[in-house]
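User: I've been trying to design a sequence by hand for this structure and keep getting stuck. Would you show me what you'd pick, starting by listing the structure so we're on the same page?

Assistant: Good idea, let's start from the same input. This is the structure you sent:
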């Protein structure tokens, strides 16, 4: 399956694998569904979240699917007073992807990206491939290099 994300990875010469599964209509815990259906350790499956701050600028955060984004920690890393989750319509418009299929790769607008530091404990992590039921598995370091992302502790239980 080709998506903007896979095309960008191919263009950058980054090695990755893909995995697909049948997405269940009505399922809203997309990352947990992916981990379960693909038989992956949920600690290695990362969800893509978009946030916005007082400056109205968007940022991307990647955190493990079983953990929560710590907005306060992310705000500190981003150098702003506070951050809020971006409305779904804003996230879709900015990224070019549908909710539940937002990939951090090949978004319509390049925005600062932060990857939870726990990703560094894994040889490969899974991220959305840009379609529901389609994930990309790759090195977290390769992902960070491609996106110009920073590894920061931004998740909590």
């Amino acid at each position: 399956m080709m998506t903007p994300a896979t095309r960008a990875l191919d263009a950058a010469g980054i090695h990755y694998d893909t995995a697909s599964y049948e997405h269940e209509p009505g399922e809203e815990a997309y990352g947990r569904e992916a981990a379960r259906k693909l038989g992956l350790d949920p600690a290695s499956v990362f969800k893509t979240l978009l946030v916005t701050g007082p400056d109205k600028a968007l940022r991307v955060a990647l955190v493990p699917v079983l953990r929560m984004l710590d907005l306060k920690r992310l705000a500190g890393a981003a150098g702003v007073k506070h951050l809020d989750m971006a409305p779904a319509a804003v996230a879709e418009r900015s990224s070019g992807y549908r909710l539940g299929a937002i990939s951090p790769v090949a978004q319509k607008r390049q925005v600062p990206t932060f990857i939870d530091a726990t990703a560094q404990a894994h040889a490969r992590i899974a991220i959305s491939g840009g379609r529901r039921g389609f994930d990309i598995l790759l090195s977290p370091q390769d992902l960070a290099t491609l996106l110009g992302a920073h590894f920061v502790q931004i998740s909590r239980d």
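That's my pick for every position. To get oriented when you compare it with your attempt: Helices lie at 4-12, 30-38, 71-78, 88-95, 140-147. The mean pLDDT is 96.
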